[in-house]
Amino acid sequence: MNCTATIPALGLPGQVMAAAQATAIIREQRKLAERTYWMRLECPDIAAQILPGQFFMLRSPDRSDPLLGRPFALLDVYRDDHGQPRGIEFGYVTVGKFTNLLSTMTAGDELEIWGPLGNGFPIVNGGHLAIVAGGIGQTPFVGVIREALWKARYGQPQREWGKRPRRLSFCYGARSQANIAGVNEWFAQSGVDVHLATDDGSVGHHGYVTQLLQKLIASDDPPTAVYCCGPEPMMHAVQKIVTQANIPAWLSLETPMACGFGACFSCVAPIVQDDGTWDYKRVCVEGPVFPADRVVFEA
Ligand SMILES: Cc1cc2nc3c(=O)[nH]c(=O)nc-3n(C[C@H](O)[C@H](O)[C@H](O)COP(=O)(O)OP(=O)(O)OC[C@H]3O[C@@H](n4cnc5c(N)ncnc54)[C@H](O)[C@@H]3O)c2cc1C
Ligand code: FES
């Protein structure tokens, strides 16, 4: 059964729509790399609304442990033969209770889902967009790139495409070659310039992904905008680099979350306000994507 209910819009700043709650059926699950999986979930109502950079919460309907839902970013929307949104795809890495449970589930199993949640990345508007991702932080950018290249439309009503970027660069950092998932299928084959870095040097640049961004900035075709998602120290380093280079950038924060829709305040992060002071903002409703110059990493 695929029952759908609607969570009423809370009218909170940053909350753009009412999220749907549904029981979603797992259609497919694949292991992509070390501790890294891809899953396809059937949930047409959420798939029709969700934008690249937004997220959704998942929990198991059969278990009280873990009791709380867990947030995951949209990787992509899959469609039926008539092009209608049928469900969502996401990628995850196993770190604890829920993600390890997810990795044991198979096609036909059910999950509770609520979303879409959060704001998403802004529409790409021409120029040279550099994406900087670390670890599983690459997943939000599959939809971003498909939309930027006019290969897919998202949202209800579908949001307009922006201006196609002149160039798309994808700088991706992982621990080792064994942890790299989906780079060819999702990025290189779409015509994106891929630059890899690994901590152990097993593939690509031996070192930090941020060094790849610095190299791009020093080249004769530097980025005109940067989107970033990954571990906090990496995003902090990216913030410093783009500030120095005066390049507009957006960061997608991954603070732990309990409710996902603004009620519990478990996800707050210090964010600079219009008057220059900072205050704690709920990443689940005001974010997870913030302009880089608004994020305070050392409050
Ligand atoms: C907006 C958003 C989008 C996300 N998208 C994805 C995604 O697409 N794919 C993916 O694999 N993960 C994603 N995450 C992270 C994911 O939600 C956590 O990995 C997941 O909640 C872990 O659940 P668990 O029960 O397996 O681990 P738990 O048993 O809850 O925790 C295991 C360990 O991981 C730590 N941990 C839990 N959550 C986080 C976090 N957010 N950041 C750092 N440490 C954490 C805990 O403190 C603990 O030490 C996202 C998080 C956010 C906020
Ligand atoms: S997760 Fe509950 S307020 Fe953000």
Question: Would you write up a description of this structure?
Answer:
There is one protein chain. This protein is of the alpha/beta class and 299 residues long. Helix content is 18%, strand content 34%. It is built from seven helices and 17 strands. It has helices at 44-49, 97-103, 140-148, 183-187, 209-218, 232-245, 283-286, and strands spanning 4-7, 19-33, 36-42, 55-59, 70-73, 76-79, 85-93, 110-117, 128-134, 167-174, 193-198, 205-206, 225-229, 249-252, 268-272, 278-282, 289-291. Strands 1, 2, 3, 4, 5, 6, 7 and 8 form an eight-stranded antiparallel β-sheet that branches. Strands 12-11-10-9-13-14-17 form a seven-stranded mixed β-sheet, sandwiched between helices. Helix 5 (209-218) packs parallel to helix 6 (232-245). The protein is globular, with a radius of gyration of 18 Å. The model is unreliable at 1-16 (pLDDT under 50). It binds flavin-adenine dinucleotide and FE2/S2 (inorganic) cluster. Residues 55, 66, 70-73, 90-93, 95-99, 136, 139, 254-257, 288 line the site of flavin-adenine dinucleotide (FAD). The site of flavin-adenine dinucleotide has 22 residues, from strand 5, strand 7 and helix 2.
